[in-house]
From TrEMBL:
One Pfam family matching this protein: IU_nuc_hydro
Top-level lineage group: Eukaryota
CDD domains documented for this protein: nuc_hydro_CeIAG
Organism the protein comes from: Champsocephalus gunnari (Mackerel icefish)
Segments forming domain Inosine/uridine-preferring nucleoside hydrolase: 4-309
InterPro entries named in the record: Inosine/uridine_hydrolase_dom, IUN_hydrolase, Ribo_hydro-like
MF terms in GO: hydrolase activity, hydrolyzing N-glycosyl compounds
Name of this chain's protein: Inosine/uridine-preferring nucleoside hydrolase domain-containing protein
Family, per entry: Belongs to the IUNH family.
SUPFAM superfamilies on file: Nucleoside hydrolase
């Protein structure tokens, strides 16, 4: 079985990704580490437990990690994900925070990787604060990972948070910088533009949400607000280039569990702008090799949409 650690800021699309990981037959989720991001850390923790409850998998350990970025000012994405991060639909049966594992997320991440050297795939769909702190505490972590999958950054300076910055990188640019410098394991990045270009048709999304299973009903409930926003003409024009359903975190997760999902990628050294007035947090691609970085990342370009749809459908249908 593929061993995964999910580093999340649950958020609607993180929730989709967690559901997909839990439904995959050949995958073991060792633990879920939580980070500030789409919503404050406390909400991230509650939301993650809600997703696990909906999937019937409260046995998976959930850990609390960094509640703020390394240097940047805290920011969240409540406009899109809702103030609570999951579409602002009250859930009277939500599990309480006493369900959390006591260990700190960064320490737990280091421990899980050390106990499974060469076997763990880390999927990061949040600002990269937990990963940055982990490598500062234990510089050998990247060498022990099998692979790192990130949802974050951008390739054409098309932002969703600042003019040219993507949320996860903008929310903690220093952490993104540290991770791209120091994680020398095979690294795969699902950028904002990649997820927009490969978004799925709304007609298909309607079919997905019409599946009548407890999991699909949960996903339907939490996705109402963000889907309404994403379907609005303004958002489509300004933010997603007029495409469809874009559950960006799910691309990173799906790629991590299915090696044949990504049909085209580009290998290039990447870093992050830390200073620009307009460009802080923007991912920088070094096509000419001027930065003399040995380590290159795989930047995802195209996805097998039929496979992705099938993975989504299965994650809603499976027990
Ligand atoms: C990323 O930011 C968040 O809003 C999403 O959950 C995703 O991780 C997209 O920029």
């Amino acid at each position: 079985k593929k061993k995964l650690i999910l580093d999340v800021d649950t958020g609607v699309d993180d929730a989709h990704a967690i559901m997909m990981a839990l439904a995959a037959p050949d995958v073991e989720v060792l633990g879920i580490t939580c980070c500030h991001g789409n919503t404050p850390l406390d909400n991230v923790l509650k939301n993650t437990l809600r997703v696990l409850q909906a999937a019937g998998r409260l046995d998976i350990p959930v850990y609390a990690g960094c509640e703020k970025p390394l240097l940047a000012r805290k920011q969240h994405a409540g406009d899109y994900h809702g103030k609570d991060g999951l579409g602002d639909v009250p859930d009277p049966n939500a599990p309480g925070l006493e369900m959390l594992h006591k260990k700190n997320a960064v320490k737990a991440m280091i421990k899980m990787i050390n106990e499974n050297p060469g076997e763990v795939t880390l999927v990061a769909t949040a600002p990269l604060t937990n990963l940055a702190v982990a490598v500062q505490l234990n510089p050998k972590i990247p060498k022990k990972l099998k692979a790192l999958y990130i949802m974050g950054g951008n390739t054409e300076s098309r932002g969703n948070t600042t003019t040219c910055g993507e949320f996860n990188f903008v929310a903690d640019p220093e952490a993104a910088y540290i991770v791209l410098e120091r994680y020398t394991c095979p690294t795969y990045i699902a950028t904002w533009e990649f997820s927009c270009r490969n978004s799925l048709p709304w007609s298909w999304c309607d079919e997905l949400l019409a599946i009548n299973t407890p999991k699909a009903n949960f996903v339907k409930t939490i996705s109402c607000l963000s889907n309404k926003k994403a379907r609005s003409a303004d958002y489509q024009k300004e933010v997603t280039e007029g495409k469809g359903f874009n559950s960006c975190d799910t691309y990173a997760l799906a790629a991590a569990i299915n090696d044949t999902l990504i049909t085209k990628s580009e290998e290039v050294a990447v870093t992050v702008e830390l200073e620009g007035t307009f460009t802080r947090g923007m991912m920088v691609l070094d096509y000419m090799g001027l930065l003399k970085k040995k380590h290159k990342a795989f930047i995802m370009k195209e996805v097998d949409q039929e496979k992705l749809k099938e993975m989504f459908m299965n994650s809603m249908k499976s027990k």
